[in-house]
Fold each of these.
Amino acid sequence: MSVKEKQAHAKARCGCDSFLCAGVRLSCSHRTILPPQPLFPADELDNLLAPVALYPDPLLAQILIAATFPDQIDEAAQFCRNDPDPGDIDVQVWDVSVKALAHYPTVLNKLTSHLDWAAALGEAYVTQPDDVMDSIQRLRQEAMDAGNLVDTPEQEVIVDGDDIEIWPAQDEYIYVPMYDPSLAYFGSGGRFDGPVVSFGPPQVIGAWLNHDCGWRDRRIHYHGWSTGNGWVGRSRPYVYISDVYVNDSYRSVPVNGSVVSRTLNSANLTRYHSVHRELPRSGSIEPQSPDPVEPRNITGASRATEPLSALRSGLMNSFTAPPAPHGVPHESTPHAQPVQPSVPHEVHSAPPPVQHEFRPAPPARY
């Protein structure tokens, strides 16, 4: 779909040029007008989303929103390393999605350890929400076809028409999956006797999991713990409701539109080629030297000409077991270790977030 077609489609859907719809910034009298950004092709979206597409819907929803606030993610990770008290998270000024992820340090660490990737996720969701959600469904179908997305004691896989949903299988706890995307979507080829996808320790489902994936309209919705169906209804009796996370002001789900103007290091993004091998993007991504951590040599060969075994040779090792910063536990480590004081982190003020228009969530399909 061309940019003009997306503009016409967006206006037809919401009837107002003041909102960000279908991946295009539309002009209006009371919002900042930003130029259209280069769109991510489908293959590149698959690469960006592969490390999180198999996460349960409640966590995935928070990740997609929080990724539009990369600076806040970085600040939250610094804060959590120095202050292990979860009660102190609620009084911070971060977006509610970032606060939610701060209750799951391993997820927060995954994003902040690959901040350019996280920012690219955020840019993709701001500009192409439909395409992002389609990519997640595409990847989940591949994982299911490979036998790597199934019901377990940790997760419940729901197939509803063409959509695949992933719910927490337990009422009180949610589990963070651990997997190598270069295997999860293709199968292990008999290299492993055990499952390709494993899980970390149980983590509490709290009021902070206040968003869910709306697969019918391809958006993230605020549920406010008001529905009595599905995983929300099952977990509601165990959740203490706090107005920090349950508030009518969250009905319009905000995203930080300024993430699209963030300069990204393309050398870092080329690490995520486990599903497709693509050329570096243009636009806001500048070619730079890669970070000194985990240097990789990417040849640029196409997937069609490179054996699948080469794709499985560790291109996504950083996502199977990322080294945790001091004080942040790994998925398989339930307790953090003592840390040394770190240098105070400089806090940057962010521009006001852009908001998607509020559309009531469709009827539950449970």
Note: Residues 220 and 354 are 14 Å apart (CA to CA).
Amino acid sequence: MNRTKRILAYFRELRQNLRLRLEASLAPFKIGALLRFVFIANILDAVLTLKWTEMQVAEEVNPLMAYLIEIDPLLFLSVKISAVTLSCLILWKLNQYISARIIAILSVLLYAGILMMHVTGAVGVGIVVLPTIPELRNSILESWDQCVEWVSTQILQ
């Protein structure tokens, strides 16, 4: 019996140490900033998804959301934005729990991936044209020249 108590005490202490380490590693992540990103990314995702489906370039992967788009795009937007907003509010209220922070971090990673898929799709279809390195360099140099010119006019006045 004594040995069982020692083993249980060891595992309780181990669990507590792991919890403290996890809390310390998640401390830099401010849940409010993470959830604001999720909220904004969700709105972008909803609008871009509507645009893609309207152009018949892509389909909504989620069957429920695809059904809502077919019924009424405004209903789709309302349900999608409301569901994620409610989820963000719940996570914000539960921010003292480690699991809420982990879910917020995973949501950020998920939406970052979704937005990257939207950008990749836009480039692939030709909606967005990314500049080449020489074009980017020339653009930066032109902007620099304009800034220098503006500053010099301000100084000489």
Note: Residues 131-157 form one domain.
